[in-house]
Amino acid sequence: MSIKSKLSVLVQLANIDGEFAGEEKDLIYMIGKANGVSEDQINDMVDNPEPLPPLSTMTEDDRFEYLFHLVQLMKIDSQVYLSEIKFCEELAERIGFKRSVISELSSRIYSDPAIASDVSSLKRAVKKYKN
User: Taking Cα atoms as reference points, which of 53, 66, 64, 62 lies closest to residue 13?
Assistant: First the structure.
């Protein structure tokens, strides 16, 4: 799955509150830069987000990364809105998980991306929530 597709979903979440700014924006640009996506390309995604790719093309690691980055982005500004939670839960369900996976990940992913989460432990935990 392409990094642009992943970033596009993050942009959609960041725009839920009607504002693409602050820590959420910084995290998206940081992820993009680390994966060779230019600022101009990300700006284009803000205006024209890509749809979620078909579930059949997503690996288990792709699905986990989606969830991990979504929850991290949701928490990064220390303000979690109900609309963001619902978006994450709906996306989790669309990619083959129970909605409650978001609550599990949210309790184990830190709002500060500098604080590392135990990714292997998170991957094991997520498996329990597969539909």
Answer: 66
